[in-house]
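Technical note accompanying the year-one report. For the benefit of new consortium partners, we illustrate the data format agreed upon in the data management plan: each record pairs a sequence with a structure-token string. No post-processing was applied to the example shown here.
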Amino acid sequence: MEFYSHGKLLLTAEYAVLEGVKALAVPTKRGQGLSVEYTHTGNIIWQSSTVDGAFWIDCVFDFNFNCIIVRKGSTAIIEQLATILKTLDQLSPNFFAKGIRVQTDLEFPRDWGLGSSSTLINNLAKWLNINPYQLLEETMGGSGYDIAAAQSDTALFYTRNNYEPTIAYVSFSPPFKDNLYFVHLKQKQNSRTAIEGFKERKAIDSATKKRLEEIGASFLSITTQSEFDALLREHEEITAAFLGQTAVQERLFPDFKGQLKSLGAWGGDFILASGNETTVDYFKAKGYPTIFKFTDFILR
């Protein structure tokens, strides 16, 4: 049995999506596959490969979800995987039958922040026909927008609502998309840590939530890059204010001739750059060589 889920990027309402703000997300062309084979080994064999084909997890669990063999994988990763397996057993008892072999295959580097965890959770939920949002909440936590993107072939608006979110599929293909780029900042962010830090802050006021949703809606209707840049700038200013942080353009790229926006957890992973034909050379000169055009990265 084989399953596949797309990676994700959150274009609007980062952090605020946790408080029920409607957020615009897009699936990426790169994702993660999962294959399951039933065996008679009497245990659970788990192997996860990176984008270059090397295993970063290679271990064996018994049916009590104790790791009995570790060839690859840190203690923290193995413990997290054991938690996922135990939760799967609660939601789908005896899913392992007489034994299983599971292999996952990433199509992107783990430090890109495209959803190595969310694509795994969604694939597991597909396999066992269980609610992926419940599985996420009981294992990794988060808003769930990444699960929605993992399942989608197009952009979407996502509103959190426990295990039954509201999802509206949309087309996001701005006429100036050839001037939009995704740049990796080489600083992998821990989403769980970012979420916990956000929860310690005071709630976002209703006026701010409304404006973030308006900006997201406007992304679909604007026709000029200058209008888009203004919206990106405003979104960054709003988010910087309630996070108490400095926006990425001011912090790292004040001389960039265009507009930048953080995506997801602030401080690393990918940013969106609205620029021109010189954008790629600009970021390479700054030491950031991992750059993708919108059309090469986003599913559609």
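Partners are asked to follow this layout when depositing records. The chain has a mean pLDDT of 94.
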